[in-house]
């Protein structure tokens, strides 16, 4: 994207940057500041090498001569290259030896730019370049732009600190933001291009046909430069998620496969390491996606051959995916025999299982008890309870088993699956019976089923407020998962653990736990996307509870996207979180749109209303109360509470442990506002006593604040003050800022009227909420130290530093490092 023009203050021709060029000091800065004598930009076509080199050339020091030598990727002979180089430098060319001597004696500071060095393998030319780099004067700085890495002695230059190499030239999201036209979004541009410069430029054209333009670009810049066999091989590889030499030899032949792969790598044909590994490659994802979306008649046969190779390697996940792409559905189902419950949470397996079940029905999908279990789990995950019930009943087809032990195992599996269906449907009593009976009958070898029964019992104990029981069950299940080295199931159980910590008034500990678990999952080769979606949503909930709205918004947005992709019914909580954030800003129109979208999606996916109706009405009731529409809250809450009272009372959804007491106190608040409440203080005190006995500190905090609000409205300011003081103290201890914010939204003048609105305290007049170690960390933050530097200074782990920082933010009610330092100074905690 550069043109040549004569520059008045430089000899010869200099590049002229495009009118659309965006300066990138993030990349140019290190290149310009480097002391290295050779600066190599090696990246595929369209990466912006020429533009970046031109940007640097135009910023050369005044005393420095600049020579720009455009090579246009041509395969020159060594003689032609020497002749042209001498001509550009103003030297009289005699022979190579004379040129090398002249370069070794070069007297003045000079930058020499070789733009678009030879694109095809040229050993003789590469050897010449190596000799030129070795012999040239220290005053001569070489700037090279190339699609392939010339065969030079780069290690020697690197060891001598004479080489700076740059290969990652993509635009950042912030840089793309500055280029956007109205109606364009960073996310859409990044999804199309992954920051690749040519892709970004094509996406920004806004011509409505970016895929066609990109295909044309690919045809000219790649396909026209490759031999036909390499083009065909590249198309095949673009349809595969990953490949290596062995797979290429299986696909293209023993000799040709290795040769094709080596040549594509050498030519910089948009191949790159797969997920940071050294033994696997992939085609650049935006281009791979483009090729997969384009029609290609022979793709099924290639996917079939890839499936054969992955099967031989016992890579069941990749073999299953390739069988589906080859439309070999019976083969794909047969490969599922190698899958376990853990695999449901990997890749897009849950969605693929649901799709297979929809398209091919029971006859193909339910041929074994193991398949029934997988499909049932996927259906429960998505919230399709009616279909799950029909699926579980299919286990009867495999009875009786030939042995008593086999029959007992089959029955126990049926009980475990039916127990989960009842649990998610709100039938706690029968579900508990099934779980307990299944645990008695399941053999030790069926540890996954035992673990899931323990998880179900853990969630039921949490819903009953039996936190000690829940902790014991959760610990037993975690020990089982760790004993079998199942990080995926361990992470699933840590979600229960995080809810337990939150109930005990430690949301910051729960947040730290989930961040650690998510980081552990990110290091796995097979991504647990569906599970990570749930973890991110729970992190958003915890961040919101602690008043960290920016972090909460990021988590809710990311978790919502992931759960939509995996068809997880918990996507509901992404919408709810965004609705609560909108209400915090006073944007109730947006908040109700989020609730409407959540309900619409649940209905479209045929999720039973027991999963979402009560939760939606609870949040709606909060919003109506904040808007002064208490009558709507009363109507909705009275209607929904009928389902949770009496002999046939339903259990609350497992992801919303405080649903029923929150509905109860919300009803009291609304009835008091309307003047129709019966014994409101008695009812709230009963809820408060229950939460206190159970050790549910976060709920106790909310109830104290609600009691203060109700007694204030009933004309008892003394009791209101005592209740609010208790609530505010507990909120500070547990970092429950959202409860205080909701109080302000319901009763804006309450805390001010009672003189309880927090005020900035004079220096030294406030109790220090930070521990000594947290204060040490904050002081080092104030001095500008990074987390890694703090870890080294204090001899603690990086993870511990992050945990301290998160707790500091939570205790001080801030979201950024700079805010924490400023708040601490305001409070007199540090100078």
What does this protein look like?
With 831 residues, the chain is mainly α. Among the domains are: 168 residues, P-loop containing nucleotide triphosphate hydrolases (Rossmann fold, 3-Layer(aba) Sandwich); 60 residues, no CATH class; 110 residues, Serine Threonine Protein Phosphatase 5, Tetratricopeptide repeat, CATH 1.25.40; 55 residues, Arc Repressor Mutant, subunit A. Helix content is 63%, strand content 6%. The strands form 3 sheets. A 5-stranded parallel sheet has the order 4-5-6-3-7, with helices on both faces. α31 packs antiparallel against α32.
Topology:
Layout: E1 2-6, E2 13-17, H1 25-33, E3 38-42, H2 49-57, E4 65-70, H3 78-89, H4 96-104, E5 110-117, H5 123-135, E6 140-146, H6 154-159, E7 163-166, H7 173-177, H8 186-193, H9 197-205, H10 210-221, H11 228-238, H12 245-252, H13 254-266, E8 271-273, E9 281-283, H14 285-293, H15 299-312, H16 316-325, H17 329-335, H18 349-365, H19 369-382, H20 385-393, H21 404-425, H22 428-441, H23 447-464, H24 467-483, H25 487-503, H26 507-522, H27 529-545, H28 549-566, H29 572-584, H30 588-604, H31 609-626, H32 630-641, H33 659-674, H34 680-694, H35 697-713, H36 717-734, H37 737-746, H38 750-753, H39 772-782, H40 787-794, H41 798-812, H42 817-826
Parallel strand pairs: 3-6, 3-7, 4-5, 5-6
Antiparallel strand pairs: 1-2, 8-9
Helix pairs in contact: 1-2, 8-9, 11-13, 12-13, 15-16, 16-17, 18-19, 19-20, 19-21, 20-21, 21-22, 21-23, 22-23, 23-24, 23-25, 24-25, 25-26, 25-27, 26-27, 26-41, 27-28, 27-29, 28-29, 29-30, 29-31, 30-31, 31-32, 31-33, 32-33, 33-34, 33-35, 34-35, 35-36, 39-41, 39-42, 40-41, 41-42
């Amino acid at each position: 994207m550069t043109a040549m023009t004569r520059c008045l203050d430089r000899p010869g021709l200099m590049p002229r940057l495009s009118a659309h060029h965006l300066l990138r000091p993030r990349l140019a800065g290190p290149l310009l500041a480097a002391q290295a004598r050779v600066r190599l930009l090696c990246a595929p076509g369209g990466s912006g090498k020429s533009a970046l080199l031109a940007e640097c050339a135009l910023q050369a020091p005044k005393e420095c001569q600049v020579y720009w030598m455009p090579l246009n990727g041509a395969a020159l002979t060594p003689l032609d290259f020497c002749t042209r180089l001498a001509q550009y430098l103003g030297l009289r060319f005699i022979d190579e030896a004379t040129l090398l001597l002249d370069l070794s004696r070069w007297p003045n500071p000079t930058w020499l730019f070789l733009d678009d060095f030879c694109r095809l393998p040229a050993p003789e030319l590469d050897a010449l370049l190596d000799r030129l780099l070795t012999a040239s004067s220290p005053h001569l700085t070489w700037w090279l732009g190339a699609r392939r890495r010339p065969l030079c002695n780069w290690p020697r230059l690197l060891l001598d600190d004479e080489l700076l190499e740059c290969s990652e030239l993509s635009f950042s999201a912030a840089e793309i933001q500055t280029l956007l036209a109205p109606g364009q979004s960073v996310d859409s541009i990044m999804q199309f291009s992954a920051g690749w410069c040519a892709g970004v430029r094509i996406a920004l054209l806004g011509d409505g046909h970016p895929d066609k333009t990109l295909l044309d670009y690919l045809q000219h810049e790649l396909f026209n430069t490759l031999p036909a066999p390499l083009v065909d091989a590249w198309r095949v590889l673009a349809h595969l998620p990953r490949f290596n030499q062995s797979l290429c030899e299986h696909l293209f032949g023993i000799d040709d496969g290795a040769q094709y792969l080596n040549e594509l790598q050498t030519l910089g044909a948009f191949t790159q390491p797969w997920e940071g590994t050294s033994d696997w490659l992939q085609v650049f994802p935006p281009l791979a996606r483009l090729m997969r979306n384009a029609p290609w008649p022979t793709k099924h046969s290639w996917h079939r051959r890839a499936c054969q190779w992955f099967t031989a390697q016992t890579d069941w996940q990749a073999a299953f995916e390739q069988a589906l792409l080859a439309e070999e559905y019976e083969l794909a189902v047969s490969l599922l025999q190698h899958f376990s419950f853990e695999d449901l949470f990997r890749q897009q397996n849950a969605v693929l299982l649901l799709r297979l079940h929809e398209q091919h029905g029971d006859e193909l999908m339910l041929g074994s008890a193991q398949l029934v279990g997988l499909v049932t789990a996927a259906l429960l995950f998505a919230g399709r309870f009616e279909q799950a019930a029909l699926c579980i009943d299919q286990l009867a087809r495999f009875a009786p088993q030939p042995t008593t032990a086999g029959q007992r195992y089959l029955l126990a599996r049926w009980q475990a699956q039916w127990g989960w269906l009842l649990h998610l449907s709100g039938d706690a009593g029968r579900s508990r019976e099934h779980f307990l009976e299944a645990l008695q009958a399941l053999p030790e070898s069926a540890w996954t089923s035992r673990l899931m029964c323990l998880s179900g019992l853990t969630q039921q104990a949490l819903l009953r407020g039996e936190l000690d029981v829940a902790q014991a069950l959760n610990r037993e299940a975690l020990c089982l998962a760790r004993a079998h080295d199942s990080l995926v199931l361990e992470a699933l159980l840590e979600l229960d653990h995080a809810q337990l910590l939150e109930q005990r008034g430690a949301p910051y500990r729960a947040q730290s736990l989930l961040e650690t678990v998510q980081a552990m999952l990110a290091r796995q080769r097979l991504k647990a996307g569906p599970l990570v979606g749930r973890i991110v949503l729970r992190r958003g909930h915890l961040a919101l509870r602690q008043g960290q709205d920016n972090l909460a918004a990021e988590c809710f947005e990311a978790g919502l996207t992931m759960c939509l992709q995996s068809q997880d019914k918990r996507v509901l909580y992404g919408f709810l979180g965004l609705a609560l954030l909108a209400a915090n800003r006073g944007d109730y129109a947006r908040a109700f749109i989020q609730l409407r979208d959540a309900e619409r999606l649940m209905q479209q996916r045929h999720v039973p209303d027991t999963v979402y109706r009560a939760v939606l009405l609870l949040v709606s009731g909060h919003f109506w109360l904040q808007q002064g529409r208490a009558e709507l809250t009363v109507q909705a809450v009275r209607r929904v509470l009928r389902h949770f009272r009496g002999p046939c009372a339903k259990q609350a959804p497992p992801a919303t442990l405080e649903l029923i007491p929150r509905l109860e106190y919300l009803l009291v608040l609304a009835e008091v506002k309307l003047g129709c409440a019966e014994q409101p203080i008695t009812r709230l005190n009963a809820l408060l006593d229950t939460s206190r006995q159970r050790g549910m500190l976060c709920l106790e905090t909310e109830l104290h604040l609600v009691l203060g609000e109700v007694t204030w409205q009933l004309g008892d300011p003394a009791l209101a003050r005592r209740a609010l003081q208790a609530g505010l103290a507990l909120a500070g201890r547990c970092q429950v800022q959202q409860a205080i914010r909701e109080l302000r939204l319901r009763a804006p003048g309450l805390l001010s009227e009672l003189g309880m609105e927090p005020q900035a305290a004079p220096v030294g007049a406030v109790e220090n909420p930070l521990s000594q170690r947290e204060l040490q960390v904050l002081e080092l933050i104030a001095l500008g130290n990074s987390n890694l530097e703090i870890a080294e200074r204090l001899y603690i782990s990086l993870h511990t530093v992050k945990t301290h920082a998160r707790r500091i933010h939570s205790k001080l009610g801030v979201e950024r490092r700079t805010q924490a330092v400023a708040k601490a100074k305001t409070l007199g905690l540090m100078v």
